[in-house]
Amino acid sequence: MNDFGRAGGYLALFSEIAIVLLVTTLFGVLLGYWIDERLNTLPIFVVAGLLLGFGAGGLAVKRLITRFLASFDRAPDRNDRS
């Protein structure tokens, strides 16, 4: 893979990591807030949702990075003529 393709791959990975962390954390907080509003227990479920969102985001990022690095291992290097 050439340097431009590798840089584009890293840019896509970093963008995807940011989006995944944002969405999972925001979803957890909003779900926790919704539950707290229903049960009148603010901020217990907001904090729980935040932590669950961080955890889910962390697992998703681990999977993204693992898949990304595996794709680099499988990709043939065009500069290698052996």
Task: Provide structural commentary.
With 82 residues, this protein is mainly α. It has helices at residues 3-39, 44-74.
Which terms summarize this structure?
82 residues; mainly alpha; 2 helices
Question: Number of helical segments?
Answer: 2
Give the oligomeric state: single chain
Beta-strand percent range: under 5%
Average pLDDT: 90
Dominant shape? elongated
Major beta-sheet overview: none
Q: Which spans have pLDDT < 50 for at least 5 consecutive residues?
A: none
Order of helices and strands: HH
The proportion of residues forming helix, as a percent range, comes to: over 70%
Rg over CA atoms, rounded to whole Å, is 19 Å
Sheet/helix structural class? mainly alpha
Distance between the termini: 15 Å
Concise account of the structure shown:
This protein has 82 residues and is mostly helical. The chain has helices spanning 3-39, 44-74.
Give the helices and strands, then pairings.
Layout: H1 3-39, H2 44-74
Helix pairs in contact: 1-2
